[in-house]
Queue: 2 jobs
Job 1
Amino acid sequence: MNDVVVGPLDLAARVDEALAVQALAFGLTHDEIGVRRHIVLRHLTSPGARALGATASDGRLVGFVYGMPNDRGHWWSTVVEPYLRYVGQDHWLDDSFVITELHVHPAFQKRGIGRTLITTITDGADEPRSILSAIDADRSPARTLYRALGYEDLARRVVFPSAPSPYAVMGAFLPLRRG
């Protein structure tokens, strides 16, 4: 990670660069990028929303994370709430900082960049815990990282409209585990 610096990111100004990273890391189509652009810009108007970026020495954005205090009225919360309620975990939607997106360019993965992004952004959260969703694949790099940081499964096989795969909702108490 020596050639990458993590710091505050004006995500609205660099949204296209961030979505290009997300497209590579997550396999998005051109149409999906367009839809997500509007979603990101809308999220950034939410109270407490903030972003961090990972910038290579040449100035390229190679990773980013953004999140905000969770709001039960947001679309994501309305989708996951019935799944969490079913397993008695819907209280996690209150007093939580939600990690909305976290992506690292594939050429820069496995260097600790994702770990640094998520721990740094949650270290600045006022909430006592964090929640997120990830594709529900037990051995994926993302889920492995989240578990190492202390996130535990709250609900599994969560279906988002138009998503090709089910997701898991995970939660962790803050600060996140280190080491």
Job 2
Amino acid sequence: MANALQDQLLKAGLTSKQSVKNVKTQKRRDKKANVDDGSAVLKQQIAEQKQLQAKKDKQLNEQRFNEATEKGQVKGLISEFIKFAISIPKDAETKFNYTLEKKIFSVYINDKIQGQLLNGSLGIIRYEDKSYLVPHKLAVRVNLLVPQWCGYLWDSSAQDAVAQVADADDPYANYAIPDDLMW
């Protein structure tokens, strides 16, 4: 006795089996469409949490920057990385790209400086629309105090993690990678 009315309409010849199937299918589809799995609410909660976290991070960075400014550390740091900056050679041909706050910046360097950047003895600081090549320790200090100025900083722990993953399951381990590949 699933649906007595449908059975009576079928016996009377007022409807067909195909139309009954179509009605059942449509009811099932409507029922599925109306079911709320809560994903919209969950997505909204996650987005709100991300916004709150971003606001907290921004406030914390501003607080650190203000404290450092009060102590005069930022001015000293600016003068220090300007003083110790390595001059970019005029005859440099190699383009070195780095990202800072979701933007890509480029610096033209020579092979010697490229090697120093890639082995971690130099870093790149971007301040007032100018890039400075500075020693690694100074770049680390700038990154701790004002992270939005640090454009490129070699990280040995990340490099080690990548090397371990690459060694474990690298199907191309036997193939040599050209040294002149740059993005």
